[in-house]
Amino acid sequence: MIAVVVVRAGQLPAGGAEAVAECAGRAVLVGSGLVDAESESESESGAVAELAGIATELTLVELGDFHPAAWASALAPLLANEPAVLLPGSPDGRDLAPRLAALLHRPLFAGATGVGRQRIELARNGGRELHTVAPGPEFIATLQPGVRGVVADRRLGPPTIASVVTLADDERDPVVLEVQPPDPATIDLAEAPRIVGGGAGLDGPERIAQLERISSALGASMGATRVITDRGWVPHERQIGTTGVVVDPQLYLAFGVSGAVQHTSGLGNPDHIISVNTDQHCPMMQLADLAIVADANATLTALEALLAPAEHEGAA
Amino acid sequence: MDTVVACLKWVTHPGEPHDERFAGMSSADQSALEFALVQAAALGVGVTAVTVGPDAAEKVLRDALACGARRAIHIRGSGSAPSAEVAEAIAAAVPDAQWAWCGDYSLDRGTGSVPAFLAAALGAQQALGIISVAWQSPGLTATRRLDGGRRELLAVAAPAVVSVEGATAHLRRAGLAAVRAAAVAEIDGVQPSALGLGDEAVVRPYRPRSRALAAPAGDDPLDRLRALTDAGAAAATRGETVILEPVVAAARIESALRQWGYLA
Amino acid sequence: MNEDAVDPGTAAVGTQRDVDVIVVGGGPAGACAALVAARAGLSVVLLERGPFPGSKNMYGGVVYPRILDQLIPNWWEDAPIQRWVTRRSTMLLTATQALTVDFRADAWGKPPYNGATAYRPDFDNWLAGHAQAAGAQLITSTTAIGLLRSRAPKGNAKGHGTVVGVRTDRPDGDLTAHVVIACDGVNSFLAKEAGLYEHTDAKHFTLGVKETLALPKDVIDERFGVRGREGVDIEIIGCTGGVNGGGFLYTNLDTIAVGVVLKLTKLGSQQQRPEQIIATLKQHPAIAPLVQDGELKEYSAHLIPEAGLKMMPKMTTDGMLVAGDAAALCLAAGLWLEGVNFAMASGMYAGEAAVEAVQANDTSATGLAGYQRRLSDTFVLRDHRKLHRAPELVLSDRVQHLYPSMVANVVERMFRVDNPNPKPGVRRILNQERKRAGVRRRDLLRDGWTGFRSFG
Ligand SMILES: Cc1cc2nc3c(=O)[nH]c(=O)nc-3n(C[C@H](O)[C@H](O)[C@H](O)COP(=O)(O)OP(=O)(O)OC[C@H]3O[C@@H](n4cnc5c(N)ncnc54)[C@H](O)[C@@H]3O)c2cc1C
Ligand SMILES: Cc1cc2nc3c(=O)[nH]c(=O)nc-3n(C[C@H](O)[C@H](O)[C@H](O)COP(=O)(O)OP(=O)(O)OC[C@H]3O[C@@H](n4cnc5c(N)ncnc54)[C@H](O)[C@@H]3O)c2cc1C
Ligand SMILES: Nc1ncnc2c1ncn2[C@@H]1O[C@H](COP(=O)(O)O)[C@@H](O)[C@H]1O
């Protein structure tokens, strides 16, 4: 197996290192900030450094801006003799993988939690189910970021590196106007040491206001699951998870959150998790240090009442 | 000639995953349909709603017609057919699509791959995982969500496939007369050549994969082992589970936060 | 929104209407009304606010579909039922005692059957499906928010014109018809808007609350002594603490429904929460073994029009009929909790009357009079007349708080063996227990007589 990892300005995407590890260190890094155009040699790219102790054999392909159609045509020849190709399920990986599958006429196994030549595990139905399939000899797959984890092996030597520069242009790609830094509105969330999260267990938009008040009383930031952002109760910048903001707090309070893989894999490794849920057996409760079986909505009301005075002290 | 297409998948409601009577369009597909309707109106053309699914999937097409779609195409087959085949079937049904609007993920399979396959099949541009759209005739500029909270601004021109996240546009409510008309409106049925059933899969409830954990600091192998096993426990149940009345629950949370030092 | 609801466009055109009949509400009443009208060839629209008929509807759990024999031959062959009720028990509870009258009828487990437990989302959806098959157009996720009236004829005191349709919550949501049949359930706001209710009064309603508990089928079979599709229906008195009411316990295939029906007024004054009362009932020594380990699937609550004749509205006005709970036709006489069958029957008769009227081209109150006549001549109003005192009796303080312990004590002493003392005579026990319970002989006789006239 070989990993294909889209690198932007020399930076690995979410799940990039995991994909390389899943492929025992063989990878093609493709994108920008990889190869110095003049010297045709490796430029000081953070990506390669990040993969120390993980990568064994790297091919760097400098292609500039992300252009899925063009990149697919550029990469297809390189991968023709690679039966099994794995991409991280980051936004770029998700969008490039199908184009490769289409060009190489291979089946795509997207959203996998584990990938081997004989056996692939796929998260399905909103992360409620795990589907195990036996792939044919040739396939393309994407790996859910955050589900695997990586261990750098300090004894591993530096990888062999081959560099390629090609120009890939294709009118069948949108023009990239600009890449915007993280929305300021999400930075507090991405870096928050304490997060209060709400899920579909909440019974109305007014609960969100309640969450916010409780968050501020705790000096925490407020986040939500996709079901909640899909309901439009909370802006998308506040969605926690693989397709939202990836966070890494010390404390996470989850109200009515089931803990689907796409949510928890964007959750980092909190020191303390409290989960309030009516379903004692859902993953979020499994992960919690304190799992409380109760109605999240009534509990929020009670908790707000408890914390309200504390808030004033803080203000005073 | 209809050139604006909305790809709508019939899926069960996340709140009622086991009751098909609540099934319909995902919130993402509703946004896709609304964008398609707005754009088509501006271009002075009609929207063609397309679905690949069983007979019951007709519901999403009638809902789309009620909201103002001009034409509906029902490609009969399993909604769980491989994404590539679904996309090819759609492309074959609307080869002249200039704009194809999709949701970013379907709720059931949820790989977000159909739109990319569709772009490949139509030889169209793809702008996927879009969270906002600005009309910039003849095309549009779209904001695409990247990881790490970054975003990418794209200039998109026809022919193109655009996939949008849920709640990026609020689907209009269909008028009464339109609903009545849609209930009896004609729907073009397509029998695709070959639609597989998807992969033979063994299905289990989700359980997190045990994560590889970085070897902790401290060179005493024993410490490391201990630290590892503690951390390892994080994958399984790691804390206590209590069944409490809401008021007691709140008190329990507060005391835990004090105990852990989050509250003075 | 009477006058302003008038859409001059439609009100002006004397006889032009979008459809013949609009039925509001996809419950049992509405489905049957639409079915009958559509079968007769009228153009019918059936409006339902939920995503599908029955989606939001709850009840205790037993339907008596006999009336369907007239609408859907062999209905039992495709009706989505859970279990056929072959055992019916009435329980009298005190804190520590239970007196049960248990009746079992094998015949009820075979065609044509008697009662069945069914889930409303299944049953209502199925029944509405028959209406659709007959040609009625079902429109879901659509709520009727008002009546359309023709301009009041000059000199009409009330200033109410004929009902000519409804306004819905959809854009351009007005729909006109020759007849509107309101089947919008308890507390019908359409019937109120039409001025058919003189007054509505909290003491005319009870609150029904219910828990659905999941248990493996074989466990249910064993605990309730039934097999296959056989089911049990238990009605309970004396289990609702200080709040007047009654309880019920029904078996579905792999769930059981346990609930209570509570007098609204008392509920308020007693400051008790319904779920507490259910919890207490579930802990009663006679009930606990039946519900033990049941996993809570859902908790739901709904109002019941309980006062029968006392609260019934005018059933008919120009261009409009009221059926089912909307017309307070639910029979909730304590030992009886029948509403679905009354709803289906009244809906059916409303449909028939609407057909007559439309065909005779007179949809005024006079033209629609066939409805009231049918109700009076059939069980719908006959049962209500017969039992008109029953609710009051069953929910009276004596029956609720005095008689259960009195009767239970009598029986306990009859069966208790305290040798060497000889068995005391029943009459003596009766008298002593009556006095102990503080029941006046006069009241006992009167209640007995009322009970006899009602139930006997
Ligand atoms: C490709 C893909 C990417 C995705 N990316 C993300 C992402 O980035 N972030 C994300 O969050 N999701 C993401 N999702 C969606 C994810 O799969 C889950 O559907 C979602 O996280 C579930 O959110 P939830 O827990 O709020 O809802 P549910 O899964 O419906 O869980 C609701 C929970 O609330 C509990 N509950 C119900 N009532 C109450 C009550 N009264 N009191 C207490 N608890 C109650 C229930 O027991 C349940 O556990 C993605 C999905 C796909 C397919
Ligand atoms: C706890 C409880 C237990 C019961 N147990 C039993 C029992 O065991 N057996 C029995 O026979 N009966 C029982 N009943 C009574 C029974 O449920 C009702 O009598 C029966 O449902 C009445 O049927 P209906 O069609 O008149 O009204 P409903 O069943 O209430 O149907 C009304 C329909 O109209 C729709 N609707 C309402 N307003 C509007 C609007 N404005 N626009 C569009 N649609 C609207 C509603 O969504 C609903 O679908 C019980 C009731 C309760 C509360
Ligand atoms: N069977 C289908 N019929 C119509 N559109 C579909 C179908 N499957 C997926 N789509 C579209 O593709 C989007 C992403 O779906 P998926 O690739 O399955 O995650 C959906 O939101 C739809 O817009």
SSE layout:
The complex is a heterotrimer of chains A (316), B (264) and C (456).
Chain A: E1 2-7, H1 16-22, E2 26-31, H2 46-50, E3 57-62, H3 68-79, E4 84-88, H4 91-104, E5 108-115, E6 120-124, E7 129-133, E8 139-143, E9 160-165, E10 175-180, H5 184-191, E11 194-198, H6 206-218, E12 221-224, H7 226-230, E13 251-255, H8 261-264, E14 272-277, H9 283-287, E15 290-293, H10 296-315
Parallel strand pairs in A: 1-2, 1-4, 2-3, 3-9, 4-8, 5-8, 11-12, 11-13, 13-14, 14-15
Antiparallel strand pairs in A: 5-6, 6-7
Helix pairs in contact in A: 3-4, 6-10
Chain B: E1 4-7, H1 27-43, E2 47-53, H2 58-67, E3 71-76, H3 83-93, E4 99-103, H4 114-122, E5 125-136, E6 139-145, E7 151-156, E8 160-164, H5 176-184, E9 188-190, E10 202-205, H6 221-233, E11 240-243, H7 246-259
Parallel strand pairs in B: 1-2, 1-4, 2-3, 3-9, 4-8, 5-8
Antiparallel strand pairs in B: 5-6, 6-7
Helix pairs in contact in B: 2-5, 3-4
Chain C: H1 8-12, E1 19-24, H2 28-39, E2 44-47, E3 62-63, E4 83-93, E5 98-104, E6 115-117, H3 120-133, E7 137-139, E8 144-149, E9 163-168, E10 174-182, H4 189-193, E11 205-214, H5 217-224, E12 230-237, E13 245-251, E14 255-263, H6 264-270, H7 274-283, H8 288-291, E15 295-305, E16 316-317, E17 320-322, H9 340-359, H10 370-377, H11 379-386, H12 390-395, H13 397-415, H14 426-437, H15 441-455
Parallel strand pairs in C: 1-2, 1-10, 2-7, 4-12, 10-17
Antiparallel strand pairs in C: 3-6, 4-5, 4-6, 8-9, 9-10, 11-14, 11-15, 12-13, 13-14, 16-17
Helix pairs in contact in C: 2-3, 2-9, 9-10, 13-14
Bound molecules: flavin-adenine dinucleotide (2 copies) and adenosine monophosphate.
Residues 7-9, 26, 28-29, 32, 50-53, 79, 83, 86, 102-103, 105-106, 109-115 of chain B line the site of adenosine monophosphate.
